[in-house]
Design goal:
Blueprint lengths: L5 E5 L16 H12 L4 E3 L28 H6 L20 H22 L2 H13 L1 H16 L10 H4 L3 H10 L1 H27 L3 E7 L7 H5 L14 E5 L9 E6 L3 H6 L3 H13 L2 E5 L6 E6 L9 E4 L2 H12 L4 E3 L7 H9 L4 E4 L21 E4 L8 H7 L2 H11 L6 H11 L4 E5 H4 L29 H13 L14
Parallel strand pairs: 1-2, 1-12, 2-3, 3-6, 6-9, 10-11, 11-12
Antiparallel strand pairs: 4-5, 4-7, 7-8
Helix pairs in contact: 3-8, 4-5, 5-8, 11-12
């Protein structure tokens, strides 16, 4: 994968402005693409787009394939004829933060209404498109829709607490539930049809404006997901469906006790025996949704931190080898060169670096990690190589302004000396530092473009609640913000190349 010298912005769609409690694929998303174009940006990085579960984290989803219904734009449903404009009156929420509780209730009610109207009144062309979507995506959609219908039937209990025959996918029981829950199954199929119809329209618009989408593939999936329920043989589970080993990372920068994520670990032996079919299906679908993908926790493809399920923290885990080279060889044989960025942060060994370089995946460099350990720090710009992606920070970091405010005086002085400035506008100066680096691609969270403090932080790793709620206020991305960013982009050779003139013109 060739990365042209370019830059982009990290902003998850939930953080977009909008009247209905959360960002969506509506007008504000298209305006953001226009802002990126005007500001000379070539990449829009998003977080995983799956249907969120506990804590509304995009990294804890009910499916590795499905889309998050909360991101569906209600106005576009009305334009399609599935809702009346009057259905949207009186449901506006204050801007400034994501109101997940409100959105789950309100949008769920309206999506059910839209599904019923679609069944009764949809034009033939949309019905054909819906049937084609169901047929083409049946490999994951059928299991997901049945999973969600059963989950509601069993009062939103995780699947390992369902009745035995439903939990164990007894064939006769599955036939019974498909008939009994046909309406609910149809509803979830409709919602996924609408989600991907809107997402692909937005992606096409971004691509037409010269903006590529950088998606995100979390290495692990949630225990309470259609993926684990439908494929229990691919995971380390006991007879009751509970994991015997769970994923996480050892003690690190973020936590003295490590991070116990709780995701079930893969049975890599079984996956390899099946030719990594599940991973091939997953990558193929994710690469249809994005132009590039970031693999979260890439080091887990060389070895993963296996924590006995009974442990309360991640301290007493152990590294277990993973057949990552065989996996990526198989993926490349089927899909060609993989447009992958490796999230190679944390405890990185020569073996992880060798796996990354074996497939020529660019790694990640974080400027907030660059200071405080001397001139050999691998994240300092003078130590970077071209084939990498440099970030001011990620969704797991504090904003650059928040990071700066928390630094000790000695560390601040080191940053100031490296920058050759007083650090009065630290967000802009760190963006400038990233832009000036040799890295092929640099990306910065929108919070850093706006100079926002730690109150705008997106996620605090290890904290189960209170994350993912930050939203952009309407009207903040004015012309001056875009022009300032465009000037930096042109100055450091990251602006998109102008289209070449056609011969004879």
């Amino acid at each position: 994968m060739k990365l042209p010298r370019s830059s982009g912005i990290l902003l998850h769609p939930t953080s977009l402005p909008g009247p209905h409690g959360i960002g969506s694929f509506g007008t504000e998303a298209y305006r953001f693409v226009d802002f990126l174009k005007a500001a000379g940006q070539s990449v829009w990085q998003v977080l995983p787009l799956g249907p969120t579960g506990y804590g509304d984290s995009p990294y804890s989803a009910f499916s590795a394939f499905a889309g998050n219904p909360l991101l569906i734009c209600l106005e576009r449903l009305a334009e399609a004829g599935d809702l009346d404009p009057g259905d949207l009156e009186g449901i506006a929420m204050p801007e400034g933060t994501a109101h997940y509780g409100f959105v789950h209730g309100c949008k769920g009610r309206l999506l059910h209404k839209a599904a019923r109207r679609f069944d009764a009144e949809a034009d033939p062309a949309r019905r054909v498109a819906f049937d084609r979507f169901r047929s083409e995506q049946a490999g994951w959609l059928d299991d997901y829709a049945l999973f969600q219908a059963l989950r509601r039937h069993f009062r939103d209990q995780p699947w390992h607490r369902w009745a035995d025959k439903a939990r164990g996918r007894d064939p006769a029981a599955m036939d019974h539930w498909r008939r009994e829950l046909a309406e609910a199954i149809h509803y979830h199929q409709y919602v996924q049809f609408v989600f991907f119809d809107q997402w692909f329209a937005l992606k096409d618009y971004a691509n037409s404006r010269g903006v590529r989408i950088l998606g995100d593939i979390p290495i692990f999936v949630a225990l309470d997901s259609a993926d684990v329920w439908a494929n229990p043989e691919l995971f380390h589970l006991d007879k009751s469906g509970l994991p015997t080993e769970v994923a996480g990372v050892p003690p690190d920068y973020f936590s003295d006790t490590g991070q116990r994520w709780g995701n079930p670990l893969y049975r890599w032996d079984r996956m390899e025996e099946e030719g990594f079919a599940w991973w091939l299906k997953r990558f193929r679908w994710n690469l249809a949704q994005a132009d590039l993908v970031r693999i979260d926790h890439f080091r887990g493809f060389e070895a993963c931190w296996a924590i006995p399920a009974e442990e309360k923290t991640a301290v007493n885990g152990a590294w277990v080898e993973v057949p990552g080279e065989a996996l990526f060889k198989s993926l490349r044989q089927s899909l060609g060169e993989l447009p992958v960025i490796a999230e190679d942060l944390g405890v990185i060994t020569p073996e992880v670096e060798a796996l990354r370089d074996r497939f020529d995946f660019p790694g990640m460099k974080i400027l907030q990690f660059a200071f405080g350990s001397g001139p050999d720090n691998p994240y300092l710009p003078h130590n970077l190589r071209r084939r990498c992606v440099v970030f001011t920070g990620t969704h797991d970091n504090d904003t650059t302004q928040g990071w700066w405010q928390d630094l000790k005086q000695q560390e601040r002085e080191a940053v100031r000396f490296y920058l050759g400035s007083a650090g009065e506008d630290i967000g802009r100066e760190m963006i400038r530092l990233a832009m000036a680096s040799v890295a092929d691609l640099c990306i910065f969270p929108l919070q850093d473009v706006l100079g926002l403090d730690g109150s705008a932080r997106m996620n605090r790793p290890g904290q189960g609640r209170g994350n993912w709620t930050w939203r952009l206020h309407p009207g903040v991305l004015g012309e001056q913000v875009g022009q300032s960013l465009a000037t930096l982009t042109r100055t450091f050779g990251r602006a998109p190349a102008p289209p070449s003139a056609k011969s004879g013109q």
